[in-house]
Structures are given as structure tokens and as C-alpha cells.
Design goal:
With 306 residues, the chain is of the alpha/beta class. The protein contains eight helices and 15 strands. Helices cover 31% and strands 22% of the residues. It has three domains: 88 residues, Alpha-Beta Plaits (2-Layer Sandwich); 111 residues, Rhodanese-like domain (Oxidized Rhodanese, domain 1, 3-Layer(aba) Sandwich), CATH 3.40.250; 62 residues, no CATH class. The two termini are 18 Å apart. It has a five-stranded mixed beta sheet with strand order 4-1-3-2-5, covered by helices on one side. Strands 6-10-9-7 form a four-stranded parallel beta sheet. The protein has a two-stranded antiparallel ribbon with strand order 8-11.
């Protein structure tokens, strides 16, 4: 990546009471568009959540604009860098929740678990009395997770309350440690568990990404790679790009080993979608892959000409 074409990707969220969130949408969208920012920001009564990309100057301007609201003055964000635009347009969406649990009564602004810094996380999850739970979706957990972590095997975050009711008991499970990619899901999950009577609920501040950024690999209790929602697909310690890529057909992360299996065909199918691919779907997918490759060749040809 050369300095002139590096884009900053900023991921941000904050649970904070925003009763006027509807009124905040138009000026925020307008300002982001003026700065040439692309990405998505969600606004709800419970707070803000989003990922945006743009030049260094533009990202700094948008963050300053947001922090100009006293309620967002301490808004934290995480950065990564790319030379390929990860988003096509700018959207500011109004939502009921900034991360969907499906229980509107759960509000991290009113009740939340205990934050644990990355440097203290190893000691906590090494305690045999602590139940360690990965609050992410099943496909994310399969790529990498912490030692001793339980996989709730949920396909969507909405299923987390069902997992808790069937597998955990506040009278028996006294200490619970939760984690997720960037901190937002486990923060809400901790709030939910406390409403269910769990007294000692801890969650990793800044999520897995902050842990991989700050904890040396030789001291790490993380195993595997971490799925991220951008063009890198997965990352390792120090934000080094991982080894996974996305299936062009279904979007599921695929490892190098997956490509050696009979059900993998580049651009057409992978082991995760092969069985659901009808003859009609296969024909459509073959055409999509053909058009994608033609478009890519055209773009590469234009770049070469310049």
C-alpha cells in the first residue's frame, strides 16, 4: 500500500442514551458524504455502532464531528488500513437496537457487566471457576477462539438468550466471562445475563481485536484466527492478515484446506453451500462468476494502460 491510496477503516460503537437519534441522522449523513466517507453507521435510542472508511483527514473529521456531541465525547474506535475501498456508499440507518438481541428491555446504559482489560483477561479465563463464553456466531467461533471457551453454537445473536436459559444457571454458575470481536455483543450479552440474575459477569473490553493488538503472541491464550467484517476476512496477532477468504457464492469463510475438497469449485461453491446448490442456482452462479472475472479483467486492463 502506498501512502497516497491508503484508506483508514474505523470501527466504532458506544452504548449511550440517544433519545433524539432520529434527528441526528440527516446532519450525520450529510457530513459523512461531504467528507467522501463510505460505510454504515447505525443509530438507535441505545447508542451508535458503525464501520466507515475514508482518507485520514476525512476519518478524523467525522470522529471529531461525532465527539462534538458531549454524549459521544469519549467515543472509542479501532482502526485498520486498506488500499481497496471496502464500501460502495454511505448509509446512516435508524434501528431499534445497534446490535440485535431482540429484547428491548435490555439496556447496557442501565446495567452492564464488569469490563476486563486485555492485560487482565488471561488470569480471569484461566480460573477454573470461571465459565468462558464466546458470544459470536458459530462460523466465527469455528475459525478461532480462546482456550476453554464454550461455543453456544448460535447462528444469530438473537439466539443467545435461548442458549443461556437452556445451559446456564445463576445459582450454580457464579462467574461468567464473555467476549466477542469488538466488544459490542458481549457488552449487551452481559447486560442481559445480569437481568437474569447472574451476579458476576465479566466481558473483554475492546473485544478480541483489542486483545490481539495489545497482548504479545507468546503470552496469548487465543487459538486460531479472528473473523472480521471487512476485506481482510480474518486477522492474527498484531492485525496481521489471516489465511481465510470468502466463498464467492455463499460468503462463508473458507480455509486453504477447504479448497482441496471435492465440494469446492472456485467462484461456484464451497463445502458450506454445495449441498444447497440446485442446478438452477449453479447456472446462475456460473454466470455471476463469469461476469465478475470479466469485470476484473477490464479494471486491471485499464489500470495497466495508465
Amino acid at each position: 500500500m502506498t501512502p497516497e491510496n491508503i484508506l483508514v477503516v474505523a470501527a466504532l460503537y458506544k452504548f449511550v442514551s440517544l433519545p433524539d437519534y432520529i434527528e441526528l441522522q440527516p446532519p450525520l449523513l450529510s457530513f459523512c458524504q461531504e467528507q467522501g466517507i463510505k460505510g454504515t453507521i447505525l443509530l438507535a435510542k441505545e447508542g451508535i455502532n458503525g464501520t466507515i472508511a475514508g482518507s485520514r483527514q476525512a476519518i478524523d473529521a467525522v470522529l471529531a464531528f461525532l465527539r462534538g456531541d458531549t454524549r459521544l465525547a469519549d467515543l472509542e474506535h479501532k482502526e485498520s488500513y486498506t488500499d481497496t475501498p471496502p464500501f460502495e456508499r454511505m448509509k446512516v440507518r435508524l434501528k431499534r437496537e445497534i446490535v440485535t438481541l431482540g429484547i428491548l428491555e435490555v439496556d447496557p446504559n442501565e446495567k452492564v457487566g464488569t469490563y476486563v482489560n486485555p492485560q487482565e483477561w488471561n488470569d480471569l479465563i484461566s480460573d477454573p471457576q470461571v465459565i468462558v463464553i464466546d458470544t459470536r456466531n458459530d462460523y466465527e467461533v469455528s475459525i478461532g477462539t480462546f482456550k476453554r471457551a464454550e461455543n453456544p453454537q448460535t447462528q444469530i445473536f438473537r439466539k443467545f438468550p435461548e442458549y443461556v436459559s437452556k445451559n446456564l444457571d445463576p445459582k450454580k454458575d457464579k462467574k461468567v466471562a464473555l467476549f466477542c470481536t469488538g466488544g459490542i455483543r458481549c457488552e449487551k450479552a452481559s447486560s442481559y445475563m445480569m437481568t437474569q440474575g447472574f451476579e458476576e459477569v465479566y466481558h473483554l473490553k475492546g473485544g478480541i481485536l483489542k486483545y490481539l493488538e495489545e497482548v504479545p503472541s507468546e503470552e496469548s491464550l487465543w487459538e486460531g484466527e479472528c473473523f472480521v467484517f471487512d476485506e481482510r476476512v480474518t486477522v492474527r496477532h498484531g492485525f496481521e492478515e489471516g489465511s481465510y477468504e470468502l466463498c464467492f457464492c455463499c460468503g462463508h469463510p473458507i480455509a486453504e484446506d477447504d479448497k482441496t475438497l471435492p465440494k469446492y469449485e472456485e467462484g461456484i461453491s464451497c463445502p458450506h453451500c454445495f449441498d444447497s446448490l440446485t442446478k438452477e442456482k449453479r447456472v446462475r452462479q456460473q454466470e455471476k462468476w463469469k461476469q465478475y472475472r470479466l469485470n476484473k479483467l477490464t479494471v486491471n486492463s485499464k489500470e495497466t494502460d495508465h
